[in-house]
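Narrative of activities, Objective 1.

The group set out to show that a structural description can be obtained from nothing but a protein's sequence at a throughput compatible with the screening campaign. Below is one input-output pair from the validation batch, recorded exactly as produced.
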Amino acid sequence: MKLTIKNILLSAAAALVLSGCSLDEEPYGFLSNENFYKTASDAESALTYVYSVNSDIEYYSRHFIIATEVPTETLTIKPDAGADQHALDRLEVLNNNKIVEDMWRYPYLGVNRANAVIQNVPATADMDETRKAEVIAEAKFLRALHYFNLTRFFGDVVIREEQVDSRDQVGKELSPKEDVYAFILRDLTEAEEFLTTKRVYGRANKTAVWALLSKVYLQLASAKDTGVEGYEWVSNANENYTLAANYAKKVLQEQSEFSFESDLMETWNVRNKATAKEHIFVSATDRNGLIEGEYTKLPMLFMPWAEGAPEVVLPNGTVISGGGWEHLWIEDDFVANYAAEDRRGSLEMIVNKVTIPEGGNDGADLELVYPGGGLQATFPMKFLDPDMVGQQATCDTPILRYTDIMMVYCEALGPNAETYALMDQIRGRAGLSPLAGGMSLQEFRTYILEERGRELAFEGKRLFDLRRTNSMERVLGGEYGKPMSKGIYYFDIPLIEVDTNPGIN
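Output recorded for this entry:
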């Protein structure tokens, strides 16, 4: 995503606010709906602008991970982090929490950009009709993704089908989840019709649509099945489980661009990001970008503090330039949840020791160890870029991953020979023995929830998984002793929205 494209569209967005003004002369100096959506290049630039919100600091490149992992048992925050982040850790979330506010603001920013494309691209004359339909379909996929995030965070939310470009359009009431999910499913089924399974790095295709549909239907099924408040309107859990399994099966069997990666570490090799087998859809970044959002500093949140060190060496030999902020810490109790032989909890995925070459007072190598030896906490190997430029990293936040969809399929379908075999693939990659058979349906689904926690740790899935299975109290409170008081299943609508939107009482 080039800076020039982003700046052009920012100018366009600013111009839209002025679209109601009366000007004596034609304003040649800025872009608007009237003078921008003329060519295929305009449409592609507008779509790039829709995608670009995903990698903003306040969304997938930083705050989304904090909002979805810190409230759970996986991550905690360094002591001198902001009060809003510690409030998330304690699940004492008020409606003025800035991190949570971003989980409202940035999805709606993406929705508004998507709406602009959906509204205006159909009238673009100088454009191949097939590609035009694809651009609109990609925008609908992104709009559905943002609304899926919004309703999982907040429950009832405001549905906006049109671009907001003036203050008098702001006032609109909340829509019930039933209407929000209908809107999400409509966008995704319409997008499915016009996209192919061809892979384009950082972009949505039909496989991404199938993957997201499987997760939406699993959300409905499991929330209804387990009695999550607010999902009483879902008519039949089993029907939604079947739909979730059907769409997940399409991902597993009806495309060839993505597959299961047998090498655990290769999944997170940023040097092969464009061809990574597992990453169906990501928030794409590039360390050579000009502004944060094009590149990311996400690795800095996890990497250990090593002041003045030109590089640190991980136990597997990976060399990382300099140190990080040591901002996000893996919870000790969560690390203990991995079996001793589980490679995901060993030094391959969770690191408790680094070496600073010649970092000691005598010029010898200096080892920093957790606990008690210079590291504040363990940190994951998932978010590291050995080729960082200063603090600028290529580190894509995974949004839809193949192994995630494998587990969606297994959870939705229940225990049988096929689903046991799929779960054993995941276990085998982690160095674990095959599952013992004979689980009941409930035992199998409870096991998969646990396995998702270990496999998808730190990827922005855990809060949603615990919420949709009505497991917040049982897991966080009962198993980990985590205090919980407010914002357990839904965050309050942010105060800034309540104050500015007269449609919300």
